Amino acid sequence: MGCSSSVPDRNTGRAGGINPENGGVNDPKNLRVKVNIMDSGVGKSCIVLRFVRGQFDPTSKVTVGASFLSQTIALQDSTTVKFEIWDTAGQERYAALAPLYYRGAAVAVVVYDITSPESFSKAQYWVKELQKHGSPDIVMALVGNKADLQEKREVPVQDGIDYAERNGMFFIETSAKTADNINQLFEHSALSPSLYVNVALNYVDSHHTELIISEMVGCRSPFMLLLL
Amino acid sequence: MYGGSGIQSKRDLEIEYQAQIPILRPSIHARRANMTVKFQDLYGFTVEGNVDDVNVLNEVREKVRQQGRVWWALESSKGANWYLDAHVSSTLKSSLKFSALTNAITLKRLIRKGIPPNLRPKVWFTLSGAAKKKSTVPDSYYNDLTSAVEDKVTSATKQIDHDLPRTFPGHPWLDTPEGHAALRRVLVGYSFRDSDVGYCQGLNYVAALLLLVMKTEEEAFWMLAVLLENVLVNDCYTNNLSGCHVEQRVFKDLLTKKCPRIAAHLESLEFDVSLVCTEWFLCLFSKSLPSETTLRVWDVLFYEGAQVLFNVALAIFKMNESQLLTTHHVGDVINVIQRSTHHLFDPDELLTVAFDKIGLMTTTNISKQRKKQEPAVMAELDQRIRRLNSVNEREK
Predict the structure, then answer these.
(1) Which tens digits make up the pLDDT trace of B27-37?
(2) In sequence order, what DSSP letters do the residues of B257-277 get, joined into one string?
(3) What is the spatial distance between Cα B310 and Cα B317, in angstroms, rounded to a whole number?
(4) Rab-GAP TBC domain: which residues (chain B) (predicted)?
(5) Facing residues of B46 across strands?
(6) Do B331 and A17 touch (CB under 8 A)?
(7) Cβ within 8 Å of residue B319, ≥6 positions away
(8) Does some domain include residue B236?
């Protein structure tokens, strides 16, 4: 494990807060990051639950609109990062709600299921949607989930790597079931907005910088995480 | 097909409830430590709460019992279907007889105080219009429909199959092969009845709760039909959820009018209320509120109509006004709202605010607001489709 999990929620009643949309850093102790995830049934909720609760729950509830979770992790430089996670509905017809969650996002992690080529093309669709309509500063990562199901794999690793590279995205394969790479994914997500985070860290020079991350899901099979 | 086994399951379910849900007595350890305990509520859902929550639930149980006595007394003095007469007369106000008028007033007040769980199936079925809807088709409609579509595979049925185990997982009846099968038949049947709706995530929770209340699949099916076709606004669940988008916009305006300080504060945080309300309006609170509280909302929903959802949503914000005004970012707002909704074990606490503290909202006015918002919603959805198409075009 690259990070300490289950740090209690310390986010109540904090004054001020950075507003990433304006790029303003009002309160150095509170750097906000949003994570949005899009998917239906490829394991998005499972990834989030694995990350937040450290459990694999194959029967997480069907998400309607969006549900919300948070988790704080400590990075290696001992700064803490708070993820606020929006887990949103995966069915196609909910897609029109997507802008609600990705508005202003800085980092997006788009997730697909390695056993489903359909989910891989859906993931590519979300990448395009985000490139076109997300914040221009959006940083994206591509995640192939269900990596434990090697024998059922239909999307070659290389396809994921190539697509991610062409689009300037970070790539990782995860398994919510075995917990493989889950923490790495979120850690990396927290570090990704490198420019922004560095600016903030330098500015604060504090061990208590928080990244608040929200997450959402929007579409049928791909799985998208947005950080801002 | 649905038959003997269904009846058996209903009986099992009742027995199970009676066996598992006596008065809740948190252990002495739980009391001392004020720790979170898990327990089952009136409808078999596992809930987590502290000792205070358990006490509230016990009080609610007692109130439910008292309401039951009031309803039974009325049945014996006014006749078994007195509420049906009251309901019919209420639509012909000019020709009201005094007794019918008092019945209508009594009924509205009574329903806001809650329909006892054992009378719910009968009262809902009659007052919602489901009985009337069912009476317009042959008796075998539901059985014919479900057997005709049993083996068909569509995108809707695939999604339904995927969602069955993810609908109230762990519930002692819903999350069993039998519960899944019953829920599947209702949802699949409906997806063929209205192919514009097909299946929309959210309906799984609504139909599941209807099954628990109505006890028979067929009545649950008709309740779902009347809900989507008559009670709620049109197109709430169709492929672009346009009806739901309209409701969200109407709600935002209502919040600005009825709770201006909250609305202004949320706006300053760039908090869009749809972040929490979408789920409320699509699951009709079944995923957010404790079961008996949800069903109390539905009691009024089936009698008074969809604007009740606005009352309840506004009440949730209003009850949390002081806390909401101290929030500093989106996450805090969500946490305040979620903590509040998950612990609303006392339905009266919510409904008193919803109906006595929100101020009057007439049906006509709400309809006007909906009409006003429709063009904007359609334009927004159109624009989105064009955008998506242009993304796809460039791809080619």
Answers:
(1) 655 555 567 88
(2) HH-HHHHHHHHHTT--THHHH
(3) 11
(4) 114-305
(5) B40
(6) no
(7) B340, B349, B350, B353
(8) no
Q: Answer whether B200 touches A (CB < 8 Å).
A: yes
Q: Which residue of A has its CA nearest to B331?
A: A84
**Number of structural domains chain B divides into:** 3
User: In terms of domains, do B94 and B58 share one?
Assistant: yes
Task: Tell me what the mean pLDDT of segment B32-43 comes to.
Answer: 77
Three-state DSSP class for B5?
A: helix
Choose the closest CB to A212 out of B241, B277, B329: B329
Does B339 lie at the interface with A, CB-CB under 8 angstroms? no
Q: Is B97 on the interface with A (CB under 8 A)?
A: no
The CATH number of the domain holding residue B373 is: 1.10.472.80
Classify residue A96 by its DSSP letter. G
Residue B19 lies in a domain: yes
Domain membership flag for residue B392? no
User: Closest chain A residue to B325 measured between Cα atoms?
Assistant: A13
Q: Is residue B394 part of a domain?
A: no
Taking the CB of residue B105, how many other CB atoms lie within 10 A of it?
A: 12
- pLDDT tens per residue across span A22-73: 333 333 233 344 444 444 566 667 776 777 777 777 667 888 877 777 776 6
Which pTM does this prediction carry? Answer: 0.80
pLDDT tens-digit map of B120-163: 999 999 999 999 999 999 999 999 999 999 999 999 999 999 89
Using the beta-carbon criterion (under 8 Å), do B200 and A93 form an inter-chain contact? yes
Residue B328 has its nearest CB partner, among A15, A65, A92, at A15
Residues B253-290: pLDDT tens digits? Answer: 999 999 999 999 999 988 899 989 999 999 999 999 99
Pick the CATH number of A27-227 from 3.90.1720.10, 3.30.1390.10, 3.40.50.10860, 3.40.50.300: 3.40.50.300
Report ipTM for this prediction: 0.79
Q: Which domain holds residue B344?
A: 242-382
Q: In chain A, what are the domain boundaries?
A: 27-227
Residue B331 contacts A where some CB pair is shorter than 8 Å: yes
